[in-house]
Design brief:
Radius of gyration: 15 Å
Strand content: under 5%
Shape: elongated
Distance between the termini: 26 Å
Number of strands: 0
Amino acid sequence: MGATLSGVVATLVIDFFSKKAKVQSDAAIGITYTLLFAIGMIMISGWMKGNADIDQECVLYGDIALITWIK
């Protein structure tokens, strides 16, 4: 549900930047990606700090200890 909602929001934001703000579509995708990533980092760092056990640096730089999980 959350992934579907965030996908729809991302699509609407990209469409807004492309059509209303007259930004090229590739630039609109880059702006939207950066905006949503920043919102996620704000949520991790302060707003949802008590609800999530996630380190900001692991999100930003990755966690090399979990590389064995990726196949």
